[in-house]
Amino acid sequence: MGNEAQNFLPELAAQDGPQPGPSWANKRWPLDDGGDLIQAMDPTAMKLAVKEAAAKAGKPADDGAIERAADDSIRAMMLVRTYRVRGHLAADLDPLGLTKHELPEDLTPEYHGFSGEALDRPVYLGGTLGFQWGTVRQLVETLRKNYCGHVGLEYMHIADVDERRFLQERIEGKDKVITFTPEGKKAILGAVIRGEEYEKFLGKKYVGTKRFGLDGGESMIPALEAVIKYGGQLGVREIIYGMAHRGRLNVLANVMAKPYRVIFHEFSGGTANPEDVGGSGDVKYHLGTSTDREFDGVKVHMSLVPNPSHLETVDPVVLGKTRAQQAIRDDLTQHEQVLPVLIHGDAAFAGQGIVWECLGFSGVRGYNTGGCLHFVINNQIGFTTSPQFARSSPYPSDVAKGVQAPILHVNGDDPEAVTFACKLAIEYRQTFRRDIVIDMWCYRRFGHNEGDEPSFTQPLMYDRIRKHQRVSEIYADRLIAEGVIDGQTAPHMRYEFEGLLNGEFDAGKSYKPNEADWFGGRWSGLHKPADPETARRNVETAIDRKLFDSLGRTLTTVPDDLQIHKTLGRVIEAKRLMFETGEGFDWSTAEALAFGSLVTEGFGVRLSGQDSGRGTFSQRHAIWVDQQTERKFIPLCQLPHGKFEVYDSPLSEYGVLGFEYGFASADPKTLVLWEAQFGDFANGAQIIIDQYIAASEAKWLRANGLVLLLPHGFEGQGPEHSSARLERFLQLCANDNIQVCNITSPANYFHVLRRQMLRSFRKPLVIMTPKSLLRHPMAKSSADEFVAMSHFKRILSDRKDIADDKVRRLVLCSGKVAYDLMETREKEQLEDVSIVRLEQLYPFPGEPLAARLGRMKNLKEVVWCQEEPKNNGAWFFVDGQIEDALTEAGHKGMRPSYAGRDASASPATGLASRHKEQQDALVAEALGL
């Protein structure tokens, strides 16, 4: 065959051209595998296809030609795949040009064996990138345009074929360029100019004031508008945003449409709420807002969640709020209508562990929100720390690969590219209901805040920034060159917008807020409590006997087709006996009665924690598991009207507590409870407790009814399984902000849970829940304590009937130690010692305690007894409160003494013998033995 055989394949290519493809082409090659091309690179299959096609064409080729043609195609496909995996490394992303990436060797055609005339030899590509036939030179040109321009796509870590194909179809091809209409380009320019001029205006009017400006990242403004516009077209009706400081005021004004005059009023020192509302308020760059915006006839409600300076803490709050709103809108299946958008800084996204905790929720039952859109404002610096000292990975977004989220790296100096990335991101999210990340490379024109001098630490970067054109100038020059606008368009836009800002600035001087927005929507009918914290009226929380009995049947009826564990069978039988006799109700049964009664009354109940289904101490058994099939049965889900949910959460405290706080902030009609495995572990979520739970009402006028269940009690289990750090919660108490209880009675636990939903206001409730008391023979309640006229009791009097005038020594305590005191007192036959339990520590029950003390006319000594070390627990909180109650009761000059463990750096001993010795000693001291 000679030369004829050598030239056969190129001749055929020239004859057929790239449109129809060769007549001999294998129709199954490349295989439809989502573009990975791995299966298509089988040399044997390729050679066979070429050989059959050549024979069919009547021009048989020798084995050498066939092998060379197959080899060319396979190496070309490897080149394509390499660009898909690594092309982003050569993308033009850094507006400042400081980050230089040499073209990786494996992205060159030479690396794959193509050089010289081989670059222009037609290669069969089977439709890849729109080529049936193409030269390697054409192929590389297209690949560089698709993957190495102002958008660099990372997506080949995604396992799902359809997701990869979806992204390829929108990125790859000879004709794939970012295009907007002339009107669209003008709109993008206008949004960038508004973002820039707004920051300039603030800098001019409020010189030296912190604003954490967006300067350098203004392309985010039209991009976020694209999320609203295209999201609305794809079914989004509500967007919940969370972000830290950078650009927040710009987003509030130019994306959320918060009136400029309101922001100017706040900049001038004015309050965001009416003067009579109260609260401490917060700095302007922590505040949120809510509003509606309409694009193309579609209205989208938006809210920006307030957050503190603790970076990324708002992430789980946004996700929890999103989940609640999806439940309210009946959108938990489709996840179409409510979209979470989280805006991050580059250093925070890479550096804060809470980011990973939240990414981990993305596919977990009970926490999934159908995908979150993450937008990273990549300033290429964190405060004063350069990226190479802030992380070990190439990009700040690398953590997102752990959940197979696609990542769009984009040059922030190209507003069209950033807007395109957001348009693609919302389309992907609405299609696959999965997280996606936009990593916008930009810069920070000024320091971390406007008072910092960044050249102290990054002189070269800031020398480049000072000389660098603003985004709007670069983009306006481009549009002039394209003939979309003339030279006067951008200056006119600036002039008009500055005039608007001047008018709003003047209006801000006389602006006065006329209402607070915290009790609207689903919160309608609730209000701030009017009564003082020491005179809080109880609501009737008892249930009627008919409902009580009905719930008993629900909790003790096992379906015929469910094979339960034999131990669980004994637990259920014990419950059945409680309902038959009306005696011996334990903690878990009381809890189930509270949950079940609330559900029956139309409330929701959501309980989450690391072992919440079974219960850390194998006490709850809210979920029954078939021992043959592992089918789950939840008795409380069989009840009508409301909804009961219980989730074994991811192994996270910080993220899960933030999520549940966010859920409770959106839905006051659901009892939301988070249970720590041991109360000690709540300190892993301390930021949520300090910055949100304790302070959000004062700072942001955001009420919340979240319940924290924190197992607490000193039983010799060591320093990490004893203390929920009661003292820390009590130190946070002020201004009627939270409720703190240490409850000892199952019935009282039942009533406090029901009280949480039946009152006309919401306050976070922190409960030191028991461990040994879950099954303690003295910690039982009778049926009568759940029905009739019973209610929550802030203090519980002694179980022993001691006449008030005989009490000479009163021991006040809280929690499980009360039963240790009672047992020892009975053993020692002390007849003049009374034990009173404070079931609620805050708001402190001063009024009922004073009334109780007032009846003890012969009282000589008052002792506060606690298990915790003296520097822990409630002692320093209750000391003065008890003295005030004694004075009010007529025992002026009397002060409580302390009985408990000595001050200690560690909360508890890990030695059982030492624990018993300490416990016996503090009980004896309290009782005067």
TrEMBL record:
GO terms for molecular function: oxoglutarate dehydrogenase (succinyl-transferring) activity. Residues 1-27, 893-916 are annotated as: Disordered. Its EC number is 1.2.4.2. Its cofactor is thiamine diphosphate. It is an enzyme of class 1 (oxidoreductase). Keywords: Oxidoreductase, Thiamine pyrophosphate. Residues 585-776 form the Transketolase-like pyrimidine-binding domain. It holds the Pfam family E1_dh. E1 component of the 2-oxoglutarate dehydrogenase (OGDH) complex which catalyzes the decarboxylation of 2-oxoglutarate, the first step in the conversion of 2-oxoglutarate to succinyl-CoA and CO(2). Homodimer. Part of the 2-oxoglutarate dehydrogenase (OGDH) complex composed of E1 (2-oxoglutarate dehydrogenase), E2 (dihydrolipoamide succinyltransferase) and E3 (dihydrolipoamide dehydrogenase); the complex contains multiple copies of the three enzymatic components (E1, E2 and E3). This is 2-oxoglutarate dehydrogenase E1 component. It comes from Croceibacterium selenioxidans. The lineage of its organism: Bacteria, Pseudomonadati, Pseudomonadota, Alphaproteobacteria, Sphingomonadales.
